[in-house]
Specification:
Length: 347
């Protein structure tokens, strides 16, 4: 099979590899779609170092068909099914796992840098992941849309942590692909007032189509306009979906008392210091949290929304390239003109 092997930063080759033998309980997926995410770009460039060991095969947002299994599949799955893959394997016994925070387990293994990922024709799924339910059936969904379930689930986890599904008003700062996914989810979950901020008119128009009622370019008047839109209350939930601290600070004055803010994006190392008034946090009981990855239950829930059509995501993958063009796909994703770039193998 063809695999895009990353031997070190900026050193990726496409190589013909043997398909690994399947141990009892393992299964093999034929990749139908693998998406390039910001994390892949950071791994490729060598700026994400944590838990990355070379050589590695990237690709953690993916869907494939079950090509083969060594032993019975979990109930409800058969060879040939299209599955979206929950890409992490938590340890199950650390303090995070025991508290139900398995998505931030420090011992977790992740497809796409610790377990070979989906920038390949096939992905080998270990028995433990098959047994744990990491393969989620999504027959009938377009493969690219099935692969979007992973980042959508991360957005859903973040929205839950700030109680956004029950919010009166939600502010999403940054309308790249993840910002748009937050807006679509919030809209599908019934959030009435959604505000989107981004400097790009094109992205704001996408945000409006995704369910934002008020779209604003960043600027001196943005916070005031948000207050007017919310009848002076401000927003009670805010997501920072772009890794810039200056995309955070101007909106603190648009928060309502008791508001919850999620720092969803990763911030560049060295440029991640926030200026927040401690007294503002104190007197307003603001909650400032982060979110990372998602739970399997989030993944299953979002997969059901995509499968039953509650959530429309068919337009989020704007370019698809062949596995041989994996480097070009990473560069295209970095250029930022696409929402998501997909990689697939010629069938
Ligand atoms: Zn990702
Ligand atoms: Zn754990």
């Amino acid at each position: 099979m063809k695999q895009a092997i990353l031997n070190g930063p900026l050193d990726m080759i496409i190589k013909e590899q043997e398909i690994p033998p399947l141990e009892p309980g393992d299964c093999l997926l034929r990749v139908q779609s693998a998406l390039v995410c910001g994390t892949d770009i950071r791994i490729y460039e060598g700026t994400k170092k944590k838990n990355v060991t070379y050589p590695t095969v990237m690709g953690h947002e993916f869907a494939g068909t079950i090509a083969e299994s060594n032993g019975p599949l979990p109930h409800g799955l058969v060879v040939g099914d299209l599955v979206a893959v929950y890409p992490i394997m938590p340890c199950g016994h650390c303090s995070a796992c025991v508290r139900g925070r398995e998505n931030i387990c420090r011992n977790r293994l992740a497809f796409g840098y610790q377990i070979p990922g989906a920038f390949a024709e096939y992905v080998h799924v270990p028995a433990a992941a098959v047994r744990a339910g990491n393969l989620v059936k999504v027959n009938g969904v377009r493969p690219n849309s099935a692969a979007v379930i992973e980042p959508l689930s991360c957005a859903y986890n973040g929205l839950k942590l700030i109680d956004a599904p029950a919010a009166h008003a939600l502010l999403v700062v940054g309308c790249g692909p993840l910002g748009l996914m937050h807006i679509r989810l919030a809209s599908a979950l019934g959030v009435k007032k959604i505000v989107a901020v981004d400097p790009s008119a094109q992205r704001l128009s996408a945000a409006a189509k995704s369910g934002a009622q008020l779209t604003l370019a960043p600027g001196d008047t943005a916070a005031r306009e948000i207050l007017e839109f919310t009848d002076g209350d401000g927003v009670d939930a805010m997501v920072v979906a772009v890794g810039r601290t200056d995309a955070f600070e101007p909106y603190l004055e648009a928060l309502s008392p008791g508001a919850k803010v999620n720092l969803f994006a990763g911030f560049p190392t060295g440029k991640d210091v926030l200026a927040v008034s401690a007294n503002d946090v104190h007197y307003n009981e603001y909650s400032l949290i982060g979110s990372s990855s998602c739970h399997l239950s989030d993944f299953e829930f979002v997969a059901s929304m995509v499968t039953d059509g509650t959530l429309q995501v068919d337009d989020l993958v704007t370019t698809t390239m062949e596995i041989e063009e994996a480097v070009a796909a990473l560069e295209a994703a970095k250029a930022g003109d696409d929402l998501r770039v997909g990689i697939t193998a010629r069938s």
